[in-house]
Amino acid sequence: MKSYTVKKTDCVNDAPVEAVNDFPWDYDYRPKTNFRVCHTDKELIVSLRSYEKDPVARVDKTNGGVCNDSCIEFFFSPSEDNSLGYFNFEVNSNPTYLLEYGPCSADNSRPVEWDDGEYCLTSSFGNENGRDFWQVDFKLPYAMIRKYAPEATLSSGDVIRGNVYKCGCTDQPPHYFCWNRVETAGPNFHKPEFFGKFILE
After folding, report:
1. What residues make up the domain containing 98?
2. What are phi and psi of 49, to 5 degrees?
3. Per residue in 151-179, is it b (16+ CB within 10 Å) or e — as a string?
4. Which of 158, 125, 136 lies closest to 35 in space, CA to CA?
5. Which carries the bigger pLDDT value, residue 104 or residue 170?
6. Left if phi > 0, otherwise alpha if psi is -120 to 50, otherwise beta: which for 9?
7. pLDDT of residue 104
8. CATH number assigned to the domain comprising residue 128
9. What integer pLDDT is reported at residue 103 of this predicted model?
10. The whole model's pTM is what?
C-alpha cells in the first residue's frame, strides 16, 4: 500500500509531487499524471495535473459524467479504516466536477450539497519542458466533510485513506489508471479497500 505525507501548509506548491503511475489494466494511453495534497486546520488543498495537449472536456454540468471526458479523480475517506465512507471528486479541465459521498460503494453514493464557491476550483494550462499539461486546483473544507462524516477529526497525525485516478473514454484513447493499485479484473475506482494512506503532517 502506498502512502503520502500531506504537508501542513496553505500553499499546495510546497507539497511534494506524487506520480499516478500504476497501470493495472491493459490500456496503451498513459499520459503522465501527478498530484499534490496539503492541509490546514480548515481544509484539504488538492492539485491534480495531467500532461495532455488537448484534453477532452465536453461535460459542463455539475455532477455530470465527467469521467467520460479526460478526467482526474480524487477519492478519499476521512478515516483510516474507511468506516466513515468516502468522497469522490472527479473533474475535467473546464473545470466541471462531480462530487459524491457514499458510505461504502458507488451504489450508495449521493451528490454532495455544498456551496460551489467554497471549493475555489480553478483550471490552468501550461507547458513544462516542451510538454503541454492541464491542471485543476481545489479545496475540500473540513466543514463540508464533517457534514457527511461528523466523526472525522482531520487533525495532524491522522491517517486518512484515498486514491487518485486518471481516466477517459469519449473521443480519445480509453484509459484507466491509478496511484495505489486496484486489484480488479476491469476498471473500478469505487473500491475503498484499495485506497492508499494519506498521513496528515
Report:
1. 3-200
2. -140, 140
3. ebebeeebebbbbbbbbbbeebeebbbbb
4. 136
5. 170
6. beta
7. 66
8. 2.60.40.1190
9. 78
10. 0.96
Given a contact cutoff of 8 angstroms between Cβ atoms, the answer to whether 123 and 136 are in contact is yes
Give the amino acid at 118.
Answer: E
Question: Side chain identity at 110, as an amino acid letter?
Answer: R
**Cell for 113?**
450539497
Of 49, 48, 34, 36, give the one whose Cα is nearest residue 10: 36
Give how many domains the chain has, as a whole number: 1
Confidence (pLDDT) at 193: 95
Q: Strands (DSSP E) along 21-154, which ranges?
A: 33-39, 43-50, 71-77, 86-91, 97-102, 110-111, 122-128, 131-141
Q: Are strands 159-168 and 71-77 parallel, antiparallel or unpaired?
A: antiparallel
**H or E stretch at 96:** none
Q: What is the pLDDT of residues 80-132, one digit of tens each?
A: 999 999 999 999 999 999 999 997 655 678 999 999 999 999 999 999 999 99
Cα–Cα distance measured from residue 165 to residue 187, given in angstroms and rounded to the nearest whole number: 10
Q: What is the pLDDT of residue 108?
A: 73
Cβ-contact 56, 168 below 8 angstroms:
yes
- How many residues can be counted in the chain? 201
